[in-house]
Structure to design on (169 residues):
């Protein structure tokens, strides 16, 4: 599972990567979700603040992690599990939680949905990936503020496209 496109070599993708100095300072880049017990990835505080629909007074001054387990309602949790936010407390629907829902975004910055990727031509899919890349290069993406996972969507877009082709062939 690779949801971090920024580690790949596509041009301009470094723009949306989390600053490496920040990541190096974290002691725990991953922590276990209190609900599903799977490992979640650390997200920036601004991602949690940007995505929550509830009062930000509920946020604690601590590190938060993103749970990508589909069947798990938890989206963000603190390492000590004392602070947990579920899908119903977010402003956006979360692609990882509803990967088959037509109207859920895969690309939150440039508004591409699951159904758009599924129901379009191969040429349009290629154009979509090019468009996302162009947007990243033009510094128009805000993955840390728009995408619940807090990082670039391209990895998810690419693997969804791969799934579409596997189903066709
Ligand atoms: Zn979970």
């Amino acid at each position: 599972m690779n949801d971090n496109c920024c580690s790949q070599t596509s041009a301009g993708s470094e723009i949306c990567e989390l600053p490496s100095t920040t990541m190096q300072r974290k002691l725990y880049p991953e922590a276990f979700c209190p609900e599903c017990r799977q490992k979640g990835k650390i997200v920036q505080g601004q991602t949690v603040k940007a995505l929550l629909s509830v009062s930000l007074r509920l946020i604690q001054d601590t590190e938060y992690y993103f749970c990508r387990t589909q069947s798990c309602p938890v989206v963000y949790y603190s390492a000590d599990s004392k602070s947990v936010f579920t899908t119903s407390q977010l402003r956006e629907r979360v692609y990882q939680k509803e990967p088959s829902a037509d109207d859920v975004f895969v690309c939150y910055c440039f508004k591409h949905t699951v159904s758009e990727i599924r129901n379009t031509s191969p040429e349009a899919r290629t154009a979509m990936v090019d468009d996302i890349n162009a947007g990243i290069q033009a510094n128009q993406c805000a993955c840390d503020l728009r995408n619940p996972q807090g990082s670039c969507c391209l990895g998810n877009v690419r693997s969804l496209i791969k799934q579409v082709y596997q189903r066709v062939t």
Summary: The pocket of zinc ion is lined by residues 33, 35-36, 38, 67, 69, 72, 74 (CB under 6 Å). DSSP finds six helices and seven strands in the chain. The radius of gyration is 16 Å. The CA atoms of residues 76 and 168 lie 35 Å apart.
